């Protein structure tokens, strides 16, 4: 059966579309589409905006039948008048498979691509970051600017697919307890629901929203701080100083993930004068001299 074309005049489509955060303007929308219910809903609602849409599918090659996902997405995209773009990447089995697959997926899809994560995914991400020791800003998790479906629930994306006559693809990895996210989804969040005697996803997603607002304020304040100046960093509240350092780190390292809590403590030991230098992470070190800081990579040191 050919899927029904999404139309903004169709009440179930219109109700969900009204709660999305697609970027303003009239330009094309690039949507990452795995073939699951969430990403298929992203594609459907993007089509319903009336703008040009590209369905971007990344094949990790982790399953022998992964090509069937690509064929499925290509067929749905064609039936809805969307372009289709296929990227194939190689991700070896082994440790941190989930994280490495995500990095490869984002690199292949490229900047400006939209992702179909829902409020349920947001809650899972917040819980995962909490148990890994993130700070307040890290609790902001995913931002609406490139995740337009964060106000939607997973049950709603499944219902829309049923309404449009689309059978989503099922990824066996979504039920594999080897992955932390799967355990949070199927064990931790249901337990929290039971303890709280309510659905905790809106509460946790709300925490992410408030954390994002805090993060935006810190970014605004940190923009006025010279992160290479010990005096500047010591003259502002520590959360602002940490944010300023991370801004500098991002620019100096070309966008490497920022140091975690333990590494940040080492950094501010140098800022506070308890040490003259320290290893940060990923081959980078911080040095203090005459009230100024410099970040050096192993490559910088070898080229001397």
3D structure, described in words:
The structure is a single chain. The protein is α/β, with parallel strands linked by helices and 304 residues long. It has 2 domains: 11-188, Rossmann fold (3-Layer(aba) Sandwich); 228-302, 2-Layer Sandwich (Uridine Diphospho-n-acetylenolpyruvylglucosamine Reductase, domain 3). Helix content is 48%, strand content 11%. The chain has 12 helices and 7 strands. It has helices at residues 11-17, 37-48, 66-79, 97-109, 119-131, 154-164, 180-196, 201-222, 230-235, 238-253, 261-271, 298-302; strands spanning 29-32, 53-59, 83-88, 113-114, 277-279, 284-289, 292-297. The strands form 2 sheets. A 4-stranded parallel beta sheet has the order 3-2-1-4, sandwiched between helices. Strands 5-6-7 form a 3-stranded antiparallel beta sheet. Helix 5 (119-131) packs across helix 7 and helix 5 (119-131) packs across helix 8 (201-222). The N and C termini lie far apart (66 Å). The model has no long low-confidence stretch (mean pLDDT 91).
In short:
The chain is of the alpha/beta class and 304 residues long. The protein has helices at residues 11-17, 37-48, 66-79, 97-109, 119-131, 154-164, 180-196, 201-222, 230-235, 238-253, 261-271, 298-302; strands at 29-32, 53-59, 83-88, 113-114, 277-279, 284-289, 292-297.
């Amino acid at each position: 059966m050919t899927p029904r074309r999404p139309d903004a005049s169709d009440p179930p489509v219109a109700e969900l579309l009204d709660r999305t955060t697609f970027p303003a303007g009239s330009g094309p929308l690039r949507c990452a589409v795995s073939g699951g219910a969430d990403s298929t809903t992203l594609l459907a609602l993007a089509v319903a905006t009336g703008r040009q849409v590209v369905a971007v599918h990344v094949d990790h090659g982790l399953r022998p039948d992964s090509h069937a996902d690509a064929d499925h997405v290509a067929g749905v995209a064609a039936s809805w008048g969307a372009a289709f773009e296929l990227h194939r990447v190689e991700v070896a089995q082994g440790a941190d498979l989930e994280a490495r697959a995500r990095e490869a997926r984002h690199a292949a899809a490229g900047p400006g691509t939209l992702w179909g994560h829902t409020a349920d995914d947001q809650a899972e991400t917040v819980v995962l970051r909490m148990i890994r020791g993130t700070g307040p800003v890290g609790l902001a998790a995913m931002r609406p600017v490139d995740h337009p479906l964060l106000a939607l629930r997973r049950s709603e994306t499944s219902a829309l697919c049923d309404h449009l006559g689309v059978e989503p693809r099922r990824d066996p990895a979504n039920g594999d307890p080897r992955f932390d996210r799967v355990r949070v989804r199927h064990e931790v969040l249901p337990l929290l629901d039971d303890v709280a005697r309510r659905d905790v996803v809106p509460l946790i997603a709300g925490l992410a929203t408030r954390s994002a607002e805090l993060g935006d304020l810190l970014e605004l304040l940190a923009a006025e701080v010279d992160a290479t100046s010990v005096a500047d960093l010591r003259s502002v509240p520590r959360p602002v100083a940490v944010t300023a350092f991370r801004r500098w780190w991002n620019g100096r390292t070309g966008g490497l993930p920022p140091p975690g809590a333990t590494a940040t403590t080492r950094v501010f030991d140098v800022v506070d004068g308890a040490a003259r230098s320290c290893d940060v992470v990923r081959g980078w070190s911080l040095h203090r001299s005459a009230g100024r800081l410099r970040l050096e990579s192993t490559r910088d040191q070898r080229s001397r």
